[in-house]
TrEMBL record:
Keywords noted in UniProt: Dioxygenase, Iron, Metal-binding, Oxidoreductase, Vitamin C
InterPro entries noted in UniProt: Oxoglu/Fe-dep_dioxygenase_dom (IPR005123), P4HA-like (IPR045054), Pro_4_hyd_alph (IPR006620), Pro_4_hyd_alph_FE2OG_OXY (IPR044862)
Keyword Iron attributed: yes
Signal sequence coordinates: none
Cofactor(s), by name: L-ascorbate
PANTHER family membership: PROLYL 4-HYDROXYLASE ALPHA SUBUNIT, TRANSMEMBRANE PROLYL 4-HYDROXYLASE
Keyword Repeat in annotation: no
Classification via Pfam families: 2OG-FeII_Oxy_3
Domain Fe2OG dioxygenase, chain residue ranges per copy: 114-217
Domain of life: Bacteria
Name of the protein in question: 2OG-Fe(II) oxygenase
């Protein structure tokens, strides 16, 4: 190989991803998910038809009396970074949660047992989640079982604001009921992981409901 060929090969070589779906659909046990848009590296995938309208409404109903001010980090502290309210479901807590966990595990290609409980988030006007990384600091205790990927599902349409934005990539995803955005940050190349910096933009009109699934490298507990 001459120098030029080596260079071309290096450029063509992408790191393997956890997400393993090609084509325009993901066929899970109980639903066909649409692959709408992809950024290749770091991999970010916009997905449609992840949840039915009824599932979105049910998740809101089941969580709305259990919301508390959101916390951050592996030690769960209150911080200005995040002004939303949220709650976690226990794994398999009820029928709809169990069904969604199973589907999400097939989308994310990671066993259900590696998931932190499904988290429901509610943002009122002006509330936001400032730009952050979902992975833990390498110095934190939780880093022995790192977070590797995230799926943010939208449970309602937000009239204005509330986008999930990736400031280093100039990308933002508007919340649409039943749709989701997937991203992963388990690359060997740490610069790729750092490109997954993201936030939930302030809601300007309406309110925003979302469900987040964070996956870990190993089983949780
Ligand atoms: O609300 C959003 O759009 C983003 C949520 C998020 O970043 C998270 O739950 O980690
Ligand atoms: Fe996040």
């Amino acid at each position: 190989m001459d120098g030029k060929e080596v260079l071309l090969n290096e450029q063509a070589l992408k790191e393997p991803t956890i997400f393993n779906h090609n084509g325009n659909k993901i066929i899970t046990e109980d639903r066909e998910i649409n692959i709408i848009a992809k950024l290749e590296e770091p991999l970010i995938v916009v997905l449609g038809n992840v949840l039915s309208n009824e599932e979105c409404d049910e998740l809101i109903q089941l969580s709305k009396d259990r919301l508390e001010r959101s916390k951050i980090g592996s030690v769960r502290e209150i911080d200005d970074l995040r002004s939303s309210s949220s709650m976690f479901f226990q794994e398999g807590e009820n029928e709809v949660v169990a069904r969604i966990e199973k589907r999400v595990s097939q989308i994310m290609n990671i066993p259900v047992e590696h998931g932190e409980g499904l988290q429901i988030l509610n943002y009122q006007i002006g509330q936001e989640y400032k730009a952050h990384f979902d992975f833990f600091k390498s110095t934190s205790q939780a880093a022995t079982n790192p977070r590797i990927s995230t799926l943010v599902m939208y449970l309602n349409d937000v009239e204005y604001g509330g986008e999930t934005y990736f400031p280093k990539l100039g990308l933002s995803v508007s919340p649409q009921k039943g749709m989701a955005v997937y991203f992963e940050y388990f690359y060997n190349d740490q610069t790729l992981n750092e490109l997954t910096l993201h936030g939930g933009a302030p809601v300007i009109i309406g309110d925003k409901w979302a469900a987040t699934q964070w996956m870990r490298r190993k089983k949780v507990n």
